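Could someone model heme C with this protein?
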Amino acid sequence: MNVRQAMIAALPIAIWAMTVAAEPAAETRVERGRYLTIVGGCNDCHTPSYAETGGKVPASDWLVGSQIGFQGPWGTTYPANLRLLMQSMSEEQWVARARTAMRPPMPWFNLRDMSDEDLRAMYQFIRSLGRKGEPAPAYAPPGQSVSTPYFYFVPQNLPQQAARAAR
Ligand code: HEC
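Reply:
Sure, complex below.
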């Protein structure tokens, strides 16, 4: 076999190696998803005590949703249990859901602008955590009182309010 023949013979292997390299291993995707979930701030609202403890919550308790609502002009919303959600959706459904508008204070526009690849990695990570916890309480429309604890998410003491109060 001359050099040229040897190169041609090795070509399929080179192509195969390139394909394998382009496809990230499952483990790498989960790791990437974990990273994106952390820096994307998802735990801040969807993991109880995460923000209050500076992130000192084990991953086994992450993203189970919150029983504490956010109340504002939109009504009262509760950060969803993403552990249950991911088990109930396919990867395709997740990518579509992540691009759909949600109520405040969910920063849905940040999810919308993530690449498909990043959204898929996030799905793989959250799904790998498994099923845990209860679904979050149902959304309550504006004016409906709720029996759960909630944060009142309306700016206070705005300049015009302060001026009115001073009069
Ligand atoms: C500031 C708090 C906050 C942050 C940060 C946040 N969320 Fe949310 N999220 C919410 C609230 C509140 C809701 C419920 C919105 C509603 O009822 O429409 C919600 C809803 C959702 C839903 C819809 C669930 C369903 O049942 O369809 C998804 C998906 C979601 N969040 C994913 C994420 C991900 C992923 C991140 C990180 C990139 C994130 N959220 C960051 C507060 C937050």
